[in-house]
Amino acid sequence: MLEAVAKHDDRFLDREISWLHFNQRVLELAEDPRVPLLERARFLAIFASNLDEFFMVRVAGLKRRIAAGVAVRAASGLMPREVLEAIWAETGELTARHAALFRDEIVPALLDHGIQLVRWDDLDKDEQKACKKLFKERIFPVLTPLAVDPAHPFPYISGLSLNLAVLVRNPKSGKEHFARVKVPPTFSRFVNVGNQRFVPMEDVIGEHLRRLFPGMEVLEVHSFRVTRNEDVEVEEDDAENLLAALEKELLRRRFGPPVRLEVEETISPAVLELLMSELDISSDEVFQLPGPLDLTGLHDIADLNREELKFQAFIPSAHSHLAEVESAAPVDVFKAAARRDVLLHHPYDSFATSVQRFIEQAAADPHVLAIKQTLYRTSGDSPIIDALIDAAEAGKQVLVIVEIKARFDEQANIRWARKLEQAGCHVVYGLVGLKTHCKLAMVVRDEPDGIRRYVHIGTGNYNSKTARLYEDIGIITVDEAIGEDVAHLFNNLSGYSRKASYEQLLVAPDSVRSGLVEQIYGEVEHLRAGRPARIRIKANSIVDEQVIDALYVASQEGVPVQLLIRGICALRPGVPGLSENIEVRSVLGRFLEHSRVFWFENGGEPRAWIGSADMMHRNLDRRVEVLVKLPGESNVAEMRRLLDLAFADDTSAWLLDADGRWHRNEGGTHLHEALIERQRRRRTGL
What we know:
By secondary structure, the protein is α/β, with parallel strands linked by helices. Helices cover 38% and strands 21% of the residues. The strands form 4 sheets. Strands 14, 18, 19, 20, 21, 23, 24, 25, 26 and 27 form a 10-stranded mixed sheet that branches. Strands 10, 11, 12, 13, 15, 16, 17 and 22 form an 8-stranded mixed sheet that branches. The protein is globular and about 90 Å long. It starts with a helix and ends with a helix. The mean pLDDT is 91.
């Protein structure tokens, strides 16, 4: 079946360019006048922080391969240098569009609502006086000017820090000198001068540089920002102690090579040339933008107490199976789950009254013998961590699989791992060579009828903060087959068991790819036999060539395929003879779509899987990922209803065409608002 697919040499879109198109969709939300104003400002900040991480990891990786002489074409057919050149071009257009939107639309619109983002010259005398006092008392003591001359080499510029390039002149000798001043990250990006008026911190510092360079003439001041390669690679096979090896590598991360230089467009050619030379940056890697730089700081503006300029307030409510009845006491999650499965949809269903309550109740319940859980990312003040510590101190057996290699959360996870170990938890770091990305919790409870396992499997992290912003799905169940599978999987993760097949789970790297491909081909067989056939997949990204090729085969055979992909999509839909039966759409909005759902018509007896795995090489080959087949017809039917709404013609979304471009439809129903309203109706009984 694959021969007809392989004839299409250009069937894969480039993953890096597809990611840039995802960030373009984020920018389009900031451009949308129907989005509340402060939310538009937040989307500007999200666009900026997304792009930072893209350069730190993806662009850095491309540069590393080019430097190593790796000349392997991507699945898209592009060589690494061709991909990099395309990135420069697209990024240049997007960053210019981003800066223009901020300057020409968002700043004036904020002004119309009494929120003013101004520059130093716009401040009145009283405001300038207040800033002078702030500088003298709080900012000046923190600043460290670093000169550049034969006795002072060019200073190290930390990644993503905002800096001032300062050119000064000695009035006696007439000699000019260069210095760098780092804008302290400990202060707010925008200084509040009162009455919701804000000025960039670098303006306040720049205006008072004479105090840093007394007796010198300040000739030029330009802000700039460097992005470095901050990916971390640990040779686990050679590492005697993974924790120590990772800590050593994290220290090295700070000194990764530069991959991007952002400067204000007013920078003088001489200063720019000096920065490029000292940082070993090429002209392609320089982005000249109107100030201010680093608009990630707009999160602070979006957090202002102006609720009329934000999405209408939304408070998650307890799932109907877990709602408190006739008592002020919290619901008994064990009794609720024993009666029937609890299928959760966050943030619409409260995380605190479901997953968090599940772990907290297990920690306090004297009948609970053991708790086993995976942790990939968690919040700074984590109630989940506190509950696990309480459980261990109460004498329960607690096993925690902490993934200390979770990108950009390594330091936090090392800290959690040590805290859990000190409390008496059994802490392991998973399997050598693999990241443990699955979202699993199992509680073993001694009950009158014997030992019972309560299991939670989800698509999102055990993070109480992101659970209010990320859309995720999870299930709490006492299904015996699922409990048996999860128990074996935890044994795999903590010991030397290598069970590779499960009854109700697909587990990467052993069976997620092959299991999905098998079910995709199963839909082809159902169609050929005249039975109902359809495939629906919801994920963050789809890149894996084997899965994509299987979907192409299904399309060629006439199976309808619908994909809801938030981010990267390397599949090319709507290509004659290849993918006419495939629809790809993307939904972005107030919540970050994060759940992974795999739904198959299965000849009229539908199956639905949920879990942690995206269809990317890293997920399928280099991570421990889990998909669980949802038990019970009612759970599968609920997934159908969710997907029906997401793929409805009237639901607002971006649609992908055969050329790899996304176009927004005219749908009048916003998925997140519709689900909020559905939850409200369920809660009020309307």
